[in-house]
């Protein structure tokens, strides 16, 4: 196996691992939602989970390779239409977004269902997203055309994370480890916020200068994301080794 083939194999393993793990964490929803990753060595192909498979049963061989026009280059399954329109537009217009994760995970989506809902700077986990979040304020139905995909892509010019009104979130990153680590901690931050709101007591907000400083500290500690992903893969290899097939 040459180096390029090995890079693609590892990309498949990484993407399948986070699909499986996201389901274990309760971040999935039925057979909906989708993760994608630019195929290593290309700029116009991306790996995508197929329509109809539950994340808990995903195997590396199930992932599709899709081109920007929605054609399946590799794979035996179909592309879910909203997955194509969201992910293709983001990959086309945001080269730095090599990994794109879209979920309806419960606590983050709860903030999307609040009029004027915002991620509040009230916990350490939230601060990793300081000045990195954008908000799409209008819900236009299912993303079933290029225009809707473009609208969501444009929001990503304002941040690496987008909260979609009445819908869910999109998290992007330069690689699987970074994107999934952000997805995980975004849901944790939203969970703390929803729980804090539920007390009916005032939120304890962190001063802007501390938010900015802490956010910068997070940027120097990105190796944690790699270690997080490696731990996930070790656990899956022990408990569900068939994910590698």
Explain what the structure shows.
Helices cover 44% and strands 13% of the residues. It is an alpha+beta fold. The chain has a single domain (3-244), classed as L-fuculose-1-phosphate Aldolase. Strands 4-3-2-1-5-8-7-6 form an 8-stranded mixed β-sheet, sandwiched between helices. Helix 6 crosses helix 8. It is globular, with a radius of gyration of 18 Å.
At a glance:
The protein is an alpha+beta fold and 245 residues long. The protein is 44% helix and 13% strand. Helix 1 packs parallel to helix 6 (176-198) and helix 6 (176-198) packs across helix 8.
Low-confidence stretches: none
The count of DSSP E runs of length 2 or more, i.e. the number of strands, is 8
CATH superfamily: Class II aldolase/adducin N-terminal domain
Question: Span between N and C termini?
Answer: 17 Å
Order of helices and strands: HEEEEHEHHEHEEHHH
Quickly count the domains. Answer: 1
Any idea of the CATH class? Answer: Alpha Beta
Radius of gyration, in angstroms, nearest whole number: 18 Å
Question: How does the overall form come out from the CA principal axes?
Answer: globular
Mean pLDDT metric: 93
CATH topology: L-fuculose-1-phosphate Aldolase
Q: From the helix content, strand content and strand pairing, which structural class follows?
A: alpha+beta
Number of helices: 8
For the largest beta sheet, what order do the strands appear in spatially? Answer: 4-3-2-1-5-8-7-6
């Amino acid at each position: 196996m040459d180096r390029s083939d090995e890079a693609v194999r590892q990309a498949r393993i990484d993407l399948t691992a986070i699909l499986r793990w996201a389901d274990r964490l309760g971040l999935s929803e039925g057979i909906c939602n989708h993760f994608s990753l630019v195929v290593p060595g290309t700029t116009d192909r991306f790996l995508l989970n197929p329509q109809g498979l539950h994340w808990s049963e995903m195997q590396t061989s199930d992932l599709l390779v899709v081109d920007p026009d929605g054609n399946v280059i590799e794979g035996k399954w179909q592309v879910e239409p909203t997955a194509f329109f969201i992910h293709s537009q983001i990959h086309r217009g945001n080269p730095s977004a090599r990994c794109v994760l879209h979920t309806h995970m419960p606590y983050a989506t709860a903030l999307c269902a609040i009029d004027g809902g915002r991620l509040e700077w009230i916990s350490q986990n939230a601060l990793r997203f300081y000045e990195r979040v954008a908000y799409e304020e209008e819900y236009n139905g299912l993303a079933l055309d290029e225009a809707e995909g473009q609208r969501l892509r444009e929001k990503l010019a304002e941040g690496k994370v987008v909260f979609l009104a009445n819908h869910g979130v999109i998290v992007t990153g330069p690689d699987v480890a970074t994107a999934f680590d952000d997805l995980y901690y975004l849901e944790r931050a939203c969970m703390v916020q929803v729980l804090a709101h539920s007390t009916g007591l005032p939120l304890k907000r962190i001063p802007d200068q501390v938010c900015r400083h802490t956010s910068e500290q997070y940027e120097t500690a990105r190796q944690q994301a790699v270690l997080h992903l490696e731990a996930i893969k070790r656990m899956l290899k022990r408990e569900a080794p068939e994910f590698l097939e």
